[in-house]
Amino acid sequence: xxxxxxxxxxxxxxxxxxxxxxxxxxxxxxxxxxxxxxxxxxxxxxxxxxxxxxxxxxxxxxxxxxxxxxxxxxxxxxxxxxxxxxxxxxxxxxxxxxxxxxxxxxxxxxxxxxxxxxxxxxxxxxxxxxxxxxxxxxxxxxxxxxxxxxxxxxxxxxxxxxxxxxxxxxxxxxxxxxxxxxxxxxxxxxxxxxxxxxxxxxxxxxxxxxxxxxxxxxxxxxxxxxxxxxxxxxxxxxxxxxxxxxxxxxxxxxxxxxxxxxxxxxxxxxxxxxxxxxxxxxxxxxxxxxxxxxxxxxxxxxxxxxxxxxxxxxxxxxxxxxxxxxxxxxxxxxxxxxxxxxxxxxxxxxxxxxxxxxxxxxxxxxxxxxxxxxxxxxxxxxxxxxxxxxxxxxxxxxxxxxxxxxxxxxxxxxxxxxxxxxxxxxxxxxxxxxxxxxxxxxxxxxxxxxxxxxxxxxxxxxxxxxxxxxxxxxxxxxxxxxxxxxxxxxxxxxxx
Length: 496
Prior knowledge:
Blueprint: H1 3-7, H2 11-19, H3 25-43, E1 46-49, H4 51-58, E2 70-74, H5 102-109, E3 113-118, H6 152-159, E4 165-170, H7 176-182, E5 185-188, E6 209-214, H8 217-227, H9 245-249, E7 257-260, H10 272-287, E8 291-294, H11 301-327, H12 336-346, H13 350-373, E9 376-380, H14 396-408, H15 411-416, H16 419-428, H17 435-440, E10 444-447, E11 460-463, H18 469-482
Parallel strand pairs: 2-3, 7-8, 7-9
Antiparallel strand pairs: 1-3, 4-6, 5-6, 5-10, 9-11, 10-11
GO molecular function: amidase activity
InterPro entries: Amidase (IPR000120), Amidase_CS (IPR020556), Amidase_dom (IPR023631), AS_sf (IPR036928)
Family: Belongs to the amidase family.
């Protein structure tokens, strides 16, 4: 099999070839490794190679829906026993994981052949993938631009054809953002459907979900069938529908009532390309028989963003402290931005943190009221096309303020001074639509319906009510049939 043949199939299709003995797992792995060698000097998507382990596994008897298919896992929250989970940080680069993550065990049980771990920003804190520890990952559609984050390495590898699917996770948009940047399908499952264990039972109060980025809806659905379901040692008994997600994805949905919005929910700007992406999607949906109209959730998403950041910074402070305890590393093992944000997290009073957390329930109630009127909410996934690599580096003035806050322990004073508002604008202006699904625990999916005039992907997002993963996949499958995208392949232009 050559690369052109390999690229024509999704993961389900490759597994079918293996099952029919038309190709061997070794042959698939050879093509995947050759493709990685060809694109990696440009993309920098994979931070840890597992070639020899993968070759040994490819020679073993493999079973499951993806038996023999090459695969990559994200180097964050997707532990492989005996190997470091670097999390994009120098601090954790040599600390081996004690056990496989539950999702890794489920992928291995499905027959996948894991041959590497993908790049991520430090502790997954950014919507770009430019960690100091590993260097930036670049977008195959134009390497001058970001593939998004924090699952940017996985998205770049899938878009470049290294693998048809790769591991990802999402605590504020980190599946959907890179999917939108790279022309992929990115489903964030709802809270508790996919286990987080065993290292954490419920990461960030369940705001984080593990999943994948894929080229096809079919792969996204079968992957969810593999991953969904309770972990006996976890905190939830997940309600998995009797019908498989693969079956749901193969059948068009009933006529849906869909509300759409294009304004930034935090009051910042929106690029005309993002507006055009939603308007075009709305016209396509109308042509498919759905009722589509402008709508608003009524949620104060500016405050929701502040509450999300409050949680994220406090957890980041705990992550930094845990890394220092585990490794004995010095403070300079962490990036300056991480130290700054962790200092803000350390400044949060317990009572303020709990008050912020209690507001999550209000947001969930309001979104529930919205879904009494509309089946789904349609928005841009991103407010702007993918940024250029380096464009979103912390501005010098904010860097100077951050150094002062960290050295003088002025975190709480900085919060009182209104710095959080500036951080919302600096960090979330390009991605203001994605945190709502994480706070409320609802499923959401980004689908690649739009490419900009400059040739960059720019996905649109659908957010559904509790337990609507099957509905989201059904609609995504219908859209994929109406306007196919999996055949589109990036040119891998040189950076410019």
